[in-house]
Design a protein that fits this description.
single chain; 178 residues; alpha+beta; four-stranded antiparallel β-sheet; 6 strands; 8% strand
């Protein structure tokens, strides 16, 4: 008695085989033997619980099952309206959703001016500022030494050296007000 499984394996319990099939180019695949006891994943019966089966609604083949019964969110409704409008307008070139970057508003100069600065940056400690300026001065002096030795410097580094006088003036101003 030859039976055929869902996976296409035919034969009886002793000699089961996957039958010969034809490829799209016209050649044939060989018939293959299946080891005794092997059950392909397509043939494995899912566990069913009597209680859950009684509660779970049975979908008939004539009625399509609905994937979600939850109501749509506000955003989903808005996206559906956009898609419908796109189809109505006949714009088939842009089927993908707009990216997050396109949806985020770009800051305008008026909104940037309204952002208050943190209190810490307004009232910075003069000693802290003096330490930072002294550090910059040390870096400029090191760059100047490298320049005097004949090492090539980047344009940004030469600009930094040219601002040395301004830096010294700021340091003197802070040390006097201290």
């Amino acid at each position: 008695m030859a039976t055929q499984s869902i996976a296409g394996i035919s034969g009886d319990a002793d000699a089961r085989v996957i039958p010969q099939t034809r490829r799209p180019d016209g050649t044939f695949r060989k018939e293959r033997k299946v080891r005794p006891g092997y059950t392909p994943p397509e043939d494995v019966v899912r566990y069913s619980n009597r209680v859950l089966d009684a509660v779970r609604p049975v979908a008939s083949p004539s009625q399509p099952t609905t994937t979600s019964t939850t109501p749509k969110s506000k955003t989903q409704k808005k996206n559906d309206k956009r898609k419908a409008k796109r189809k109505e307008d006949g714009d088939t070139t842009q089927d993908t959703e707009p990216s997050d970057q396109a949806q985020t508003p770009t800051p305008t100069p008026s909104t940037l001016e309204q952002v208050p600065e943190p209190e810490a940056s307004k009232a910075e400690d003069p000693e802290k500022k003096l330490r930072a300026l002294n550090k910059k001065l040390r870096q400029i002096e090191q760059l100047k030494e490298r320049y005097d030795r004949g090492e090539p410097l980047l344009p940004e580094q030469t600009d930094k050296i040219s601002k040395m006088d301004e830096l010294v003036a700021q340091i003197q101003e802070l040390s006097v007000s201290k």
